[in-house]
Amino acid sequence: MNTEELNDNSTEKETSKAKRFFNACSNYCKKKNVKPSLKTYFIDAMGKMALGLFASLLIGTILDTIGDLTHLDFFVQLGSYASQASGAAMAVAIGYALKTPPLVLFSLVAVGISANVLGGAGGPLAVFFIAIITSEVAKLFSNTTKIDILVTPLITIIVGCGLAMGIAPGIGYLANLIGNGINKATELQPFLMGIVLAVVVGVVLTLPISSAAICASFGITGLAGGAALAGCCCQMIGFAVQSFKENKWSGLVAQGIGTSMLQMPNIVKKPVIWLPTTLASAICGPLATCVFKLEMNGPAISSGMGTCGLVGPIGVIQGWFNDIDAGLKANITALDISGLILISIILPIVLTLIFHFICLKLHWYKNEDLKLEL
What we know:
Layout: H1 3-31, H2 38-70, H3 73-84, H4 86-97, H5 102-118, H6 123-141, H7 148-188, H8 190-206, H9 211-218, H10 222-242, H11 244-256, H12 264-269, H13 275-291, H14 311-325, H15 334-361
Helix pairs in contact: 2-3, 2-4, 2-14, 4-5, 4-6, 5-6, 5-7, 6-7, 6-9, 7-8, 7-10, 8-10, 8-13, 10-11, 10-13, 10-15, 13-15
């Protein structure tokens, strides 16, 4: 056997060892339910993270607004407690989406709090990445020893809080930088950015991705938040009225104050049904930024919620009270109220129906293409 054959055999053995090692690792990960994919992290985990935000920060905002309107400190205190739980709620929601074992899930409370606090303005984005990494690592070690009740929480908290101390400030700084850039760009170019943000955030709202979590992560507020709100409202209210003939009142409520995501199966079959609401978004966005100067100075997550539970409009109203308390606004004007109503409800209805009628006349789709399975 010559030298070349020996080298070839040696290479084959090394390759075979590497392949066996890779297969063993892959099988172990599958056994521990660690299955990395874009869908798992950016659709499932991010979607559940948004629910965590809703159940904490958003509910806190609603309670705080009720307290401001009624002058009852009880609701303000409740809102404060709920908002403070946002980091823990997000991390636990992500762990739930990733099907972590109970000890990992409960230990993520500390991870979420540390990542959210250390991430500063970009806390939600820090929680998103750190909770995912921590969950997957902890799952690999969970239920591997007889003292799992000690080992699993220790590993989860050491890994998660260690990551939070190491990278959360950097993630928060980057998210804040991007968010500030978007907000500043909208102030400098309100017309163009009004179109871009309204269309993009509105589309993301309808896709199986969380626009609320994205807006919260990057701190999309001010005029940029107003444009994002306009786009989201156009998608939700727009689809609600566009499909009313087929889906009646149940569809109106489900989409108008629920989610336009219900139309995704129909959009996949017939993408053109998305045109009326998207065109409405492109018009309402710059109207919000240039004409009504609509600003989202409440929680950034409200920018990506639209009329879901009326959270978007409530966020704008909360922002008005925040500005008044800070001395930045004298009072709530008629233009404020009319602008919010027009951008959130009336214009999405009128514009979407106009474009819907045109599309029907052009035979681009039929009303039946918007039917929901409710």
